[in-house]
Amino acid sequence: MQIMNQTLTTNHQDFQVTAYWLDSNQDFNNTRHQPVVIICPGGGFRYHSQRETEPIALKALAEGCHAVVLPYQLIEPDQMVYPTALQQLAKTIEWITDQSDTQKVDPERIVLVGFSAGGHLVATFNGIATNPELNTQYQLDSYRGHHAAVILSYPVIDLDAGFPKEESEKERITTDQRLWHAQDTLTKWAKPCFV
Predict the structure, then answer these.
(1) Based on C-alpha coordinates, what's the Rg of the chain?
(2) Cα–chain-centroid distance for residue 53?
(3) CA-to-CA distance for 154 and 6, rounded, in angstroms?
(4) Which of 27, 52, 58, 119 might form a disulfide with 152, Cβ 3.0–4.6 angstroms?
(5) For 108-127, how does the pLDDT look when each residue is reduced to its tens digit (9 = 90+)?
(6) What is the largest CA-CA distance in the chain?
(7) Cβ contact 148:110 at 8 Å
(8) Read out DSSP for 136-192?
(9) Are 61 and 22 in contact (CB under 8 A)?
(10) Are strands 66-69 and 34-40 parallel, antiparallel or unpaired?
(11) pLDDT band, residue 28 (cuts 50/70/90)
């Protein structure tokens, strides 16, 4: 296994991902390209839960998948979560797609895994990135690559369903109310989802 910290940039803003690459498997004299999971941890949009980063990545490795942990944009005094987090996820998919040969990644088997608030990001991305109209509106159409499926673990789906409680907190996540309701972004183009 190789652990790699990689700085990526979207909209002139740097962010860092941590990749856990499996060693190349040459059983039966045939090099296999492995699936990869992108892990978006929870933390109420205020922090990234450590129990949903490396422990989950190690579990993915044990199942034969590469893993990449994405510490997406959080609420900051001068910045909301969205749309930056969506673009960071798109950039991460693009970077993984570009690693296809060097890290033996199967770009057709990229799975997004989101926990709690990270589940909101993943669910929203699944609706927005797969919708041709919204993909362009949220500037996701300039990134290469795509995801194959999503896994949502105790996700936040609807910001009006009890978390966060105050409207002012929702507006710190995004003032774009379309993004408050991940379920409303889904269309026939969305990828399969396991909840």
Answers:
(1) 16
(2) 12
(3) 28
(4) 119
(5) 999 999 999 999 999 999 99
(6) 58
(7) yes
(8) HHTT-TTS----SEEEEES---BTTSSSS-SHHHHHHH-S-GGGGBGGGG--TTPPP
(9) yes
(10) parallel
(11) low
